[in-house]
Amino acid sequence: MPTVKILGSLAGTEPFEGRHHTSVVLTEQNAHYFLDAGENCARSAHLGGVDLLHVRAIFLSHTHYDHIGGLVGLLWNIRKLSHVKGKGPVAPTLPIFIPDPEAFEAIRTLLSYTEGGFWDGLKFKILPQKPSVGLCYEDENIRVFATPTTHLPQRPDGDARAFSYRIECHDHTIVYSGDLGTIDDLAAPVGEGCDLLMVETGHHAVQTVCDFTDAHAVGELLLYHHGREILYGKPSVEKAISEANTPVILAEDGMTLER
Q1: What's the pLDDT score for residue 120?
Q2: 91 secondary structure, DSSP code
Q3: Over the range 95-133, which residues count as b (16 or more CB within 10 Å of their CB) and which as e?
Q4: What pLDDT is recorded for position 142?
Q5: 168-176: long-range contacts at Cβ-Cβ below 8 A with a sequence spacing of 24 or more?
Q6: Could you say which DSSP state residue 76 is in?
Q7: At 103, phi and psi to the nearest 5?
Q8: What whole-number distance in Å separates Cα of residue 174 and Cα of residue 226?
Q9: Parallel, antiparallel or unpaired: strands 3-8 and 256-258
Q10: Which of 43, 122, 180, 245 has the highest CB neighbour count under 10 A?
Q11: Which of 248, 200, 192 minimizes the C-alpha distance to 67?
């Protein structure tokens, strides 16, 4: 069964005690898959028992800072651990699904200024690519389907710049919302249902999210990417959760869900 670990539960706000920007790691069969890479995600993962040399893929919903601000550190730490342990990652190629590949060129340049130029002697290949709509990744553990959201306007080439991801494991289906323009963006990735739906609350009221979930075949709802409604503990949050038909979990940094 997959494990979901919350590395960062915060939307793009100023710093809040005990919370970092958005990042989640999904583990299946000792393989790790990152969903977004907010600040300090590598540190939180490593100190939380995640073996970064077992990262198989990184899925970025979009390229806003609160979702990719930790990507440099994640790649740097994977390289550092490969040198410290004297072995490369278990997978020779690390795909990074990034809606704006141009952003990765800035990351590539920044990493080139670290010791050894970073890229020299790298024990694995980093492969940035735009997510393809539909099935975008598959291995022996998971299948991942990308669906555009309306959180950002399209790229000049007409491709989407923000995505939700539907992850199908052996016996569990998880939908990761990314940031949404409208709650209706979830209709396609949720489809006929899922076991766990992870929805951002930085741009939508908790009541709106709960209403959507109750109208669809969702086993559990996990709220993450918290905005001020949750951060300040507004009464509307407790009311919406208590009245929801679907079980609701509020994400906290360091939380682990075993599904």
Answers
A1: 86
A2: S
A3: bbbbbbeebbeebeeebeeeeeebeeebebebebebbee
A4: 97
A5: 168/142, 168/143, 168/144, 169/1, 169/2, 169/28, 169/141, 169/142, 170/28, 170/141, 171/1, 172/1, 172/2, 172/196, 172/259, 174/2, 174/4, 174/26, 174/198, 174/259, 176/24, 176/35, 176/59, 176/61
A6: H
A7: -65, -30
A8: 19
A9: antiparallel
A10: 180
A11: 200
Q: How many CA atoms lie within 13 A of 173 on its CB side?
A: 12
Q: pLDDT, tens digit, for every residue of 96-108? A: 999 999 999 999 9
Distances (CA, A) of 81 to 23, 57, 84, 170: 20, 17, 5, 29
The CATH homologous superfamily of the domain defined by 3-252: Ribonuclease Z/Hydroxyacylglutathione hydrolase-like (3.60.15.10)
Angle between helices 101-111 and 71-84 (to 10 degrees): 50
Q: Which stretches of the chain score pLDDT less than 50?
A: none
Burial 174-198 (b: 16+ CB within 10 A, else e): bbbbbbbeebebbeebbeeebbbbb
- pTM score, whole prediction: 0.97
Read off the tokens for 194. Answer: 């899922």
Give residue 223's Cα distance to chain centre: 13
- The domains of the chain are located at 3-252
Three-point CA angle 99, 47, 84, nearest 5°:
85
Give residue 168's identity as a one-letter amino acid code: E
- Residue 48's Cβ-count burial label (10 Å; 0-12, 13-18, 19+) is middle
| pLDDT tens-digit series, residues 121-133 | 898 999 999 999 9
Edge-to-edge strand ranges of the sheet holding 23-28: 125-129, 93-97, 55-59, 31-35, 23-28, 3-8, 256-258
Longest dimension (CA), the chain: 56
